[in-house]
Amino acid sequence: MPLQTSDGILKALGDEPLRDAGELRAKLVPKLKLYLEEGRARGEQQLLDTEDGLVCAKYLSTHMDDLVQLVHDAVVRHLYPAENPSSGERIAVVATGGYGRGTLAPGSDVDLLFLLPYKQTAWSESVVEGMLYVLWDLKLKVGHATRSVEDCIREARADMTIRTALLESRFLFGDRALFDDLVQRFDKEVVATSAAEFVDAKLKERDARVAKAGASRYLVEPNVKDGKGGLRDLNTLFWIGKYVYQVKKPKELVKAGLFTPEEFKLFQRCEEFLWRVRCHMHFATGRAEERLTFDLQRVIAERIGVAPRGGLSTVERFMKTYFLIAKDVGDLTAIVCAELEARQTKKRPMLDRVFGRFRRRRGGALAGNDFIIDNNRINVKNEDVFGRDPVNLIRLFWLADKHNLAIHPDATRLATRSLKLIGQNLRRDPEANKLFLDIITSRNAPEVVLRHMNEAGVLGRFIPDFGRIVAMMQFNMYHHYTVDEHLIRTIGVLTEIETGQLGNEHPLANQIFTTIQNRRALYVAVFLHDIAKGRPEDHSIAGAAIARKLGPRFGLTDAETDTVAWLVEHHLLMSNTAQSRDLSDPSTIKSFADVVQTMERLKLLLVLTIADIKAVGPGTWTGWKGQLLRTLYYETEVLLGGGAADVARSDRVRLAQEQLRKALPEWSDEEFEQYAARHTPAYWLKTDDERRVKQAHFVRAADKDGRTVTTCYETDHFRGVTELTVLSPDHPRLLAIVTGACAAAGGNIVDAQIFTTTDGMALDTIVLSRAFDRDEDELRRAERVAKAIERALKGEVKIADLVESKRPSKPSSRAFNVPPEVILDNSLSSRQTVIEISGLDRPGLLYDLTTALGKLNLNIASAHIVTFGEKAVDVFYVTDLTGTKVTHAGRQATIRRTLLDVFKNEEAEHPQKRSA
């Protein structure tokens, strides 16, 4: 039995009028809170029992109906009774917006219209005010309006939001005649005369909403309500159908010709699933949370009851289902909205798109009379075009690319219904594969056409290995899109590079693209580079095997196939080397060159790497990464060409010193010789000419002013970084202090170049990622970071306390589990031991690691910091205090154990982090 009933609550208030609104609320609100809580608890239990989101949403809406009426009855009975109501003392309470549809999520707004016959009276104003105060005391988010019928009609004409809200109005209680009058006048005076205007406005509104929430339905943290493929898209579809065809219920869309019965079943399945996810999200968070964030994904997957299967985790299986549903929503809305948009533009009042009915309107035949141009879009001439020749399923998209035309929704719909025709015979067909290769390597818009193929389901059926990664998410904060969307976007970036659209951003790639001889191999490799994601084996190696299988099928030569397979297998090599290795170390370049072997492969790998990083998501590409890639390219180019790499080390030092001497004509010979003698050979070999000049002036000025601890900074907009140079007496904990000061001041370190002069001074360059677009803002931030470093080095602040004060009270990446790993390698450098540390990133991690290295009495020669979303990969080139590599097994074990303890200590302090 329920704790509270509406009748019981009203009876508990008694029959006599109360003294004032305050007394009513004091008695009523506590009981209504229990009533509301019980209703929500029952709704949640229904959700868990029935596994039906619509059942839950409809129950919550009905429960809210009862509560609103209960509030009204209590206010009217005890505060403002109308014994002999006049014609003006009438009111109808109407649900509008989402609440008007009869579905309500636990945290949704309650949208109410208080409908009056004409102007507001003192009685109606008091009733509305009394109701609202009670609803607000219940902490409900109430959207409300008090209008007459005439007000509603006038404002609906002027405001599309009000018009849409009224379109979904639902009578709750009160004067039914008032509501019926509103509906009749709204249909006659607003809807009947403005269908084209409404359709156009809703489609534009949808575009703006999707752009704001995230332009792709494959964003890995989607907005369930407003994102592409979310509930609002289904709402938009129904609004348009309701407005244009005067349908009252979604199932009437079949009779209107918008859906086949099968498609309406798909509509229902999508709506139920999205409501189920949304209600679970609200219940789990206790608020109106609409974004399916990483930390929520695991929770909702478990609440829904998804189990791991087929190599996919619980979260990955759940999100794959979500993205497939979002794709289905996209298919439904694209078909209906495109058709309505085209026909409403022509002011055609009815939509005569019964399936299988095709009419040629404008344009000629294409491809042997199988296709026509219909309203400037490619359409099929008749419904047996795919059954008669399945190659047409590929030819449709090939023609779209060749003629730069959109595909008619009828053709897309028929292609999706014909997917069973795509079997082994079509996959082996030489003509079909030739057409597909033309699409991938097109100079027009391969990204757009491939996305259409994917959304129609053709791409995954024609390339089953691609079908395995359709809607597959990558459960990390680094990748922004599902795997299939990432691959398609990578093709788009590659096209932009080739056409010169990104010349300013990628000057080297733009320059070398015209010299690439294996263009077809490059495009195919880009399309396939992540195709083996989600398999138990390494996706690069498994992907290479897939490439060897698909290359001959596509019509590639043996040499092209070998190139594609090599690129897929090594597609991460250049990025990893550039970001996590010392590019001034000859061993780094030699190891990389040994794998690459030829200039052609080097060019191909550079372009593929750029396209891959850029397609990960907004903000992933930075100018700093571009600079690292260019440096690696140029250094490897020299080695592959057999040129300056053979120059003796002493000669390279001498040449560097001569270059600097020429750049400092105002210095005396004696002054320059003293300065040059302060630097070790490593300095001359690892720094570029421009930096040597700047640092010479910096050190000279510090010496002149007697400053032993000082900093300077400059920003580089093109590389997207800010460089801080630090001069200080050297000591083992120097880098720890610098990284701690940076962390406390909000500086995100991406690289560090560290040198010690012969007279015991440290000259370190710390590279920070930019935080601001405007240079003046970035320089102000750099000044704050620089001052924090100086204060810490001078002992004015205790760096450990400063870092600790900046750590968040709760860890931010609890959704993820990144097992820490420490690798020591003496083969990667001729002079230092390379320590690679990976694990879950957190504020202050770099400080903790450098502190641990200092306590281990290790000298850090250089540091390279990379983050992949929640995963940090920090690489240190170190020596022991005698300047030699760490070779003793026991010593290595101690280092490994100490560094792993950095992560274990964090887990001990925040055990909830291990919940993932």
Explain this structure to me?
This protein is an alpha+beta fold and 916 residues long. Among the domains are: 188 residues, Beta Polymerase, domain 2; 150 residues, Nucleotidyltransferases  domain 2 (Four Helix Bundle (Hemerythrin (Met), subunit A), Up-down Bundle), CATH 1.20.120; 209 residues, no CATH class. The strands form 3 sheets. Strands 9-10-12-11-15-16-14-13 form an 8-stranded antiparallel β-sheet, sandwiched between helices. Strands 3-2-1-4 form a 4-stranded mixed β-sheet, with helices on both faces. Helix 12 crosses helix 14. The longest helix is centred in the middle third of the chain and has 32 residues. Its cofactor is Mg(2+). Belongs to the GlnD family. It catalyses: [protein-PII]-L-tyrosine + UTP = [protein-PII]-uridylyl-L-tyrosine + diphosphate; [protein-PII]-uridylyl-L-tyrosine + H2O = [protein-PII]-L-tyrosine + UMP + H(+).
Main attributes of the structure:
916 residues; Beta Polymerase, domain 2; Four Helix Bundle (Hemerythrin (Met), subunit A); 8-stranded antiparallel sheet; 40 helices; 16 strands; 56% helix; globular; PII_UdlTrfase/GS_AdlTrfase; multifunctional enzyme; [protein-PII] uridylyltransferase activity; hydrolase; transferase
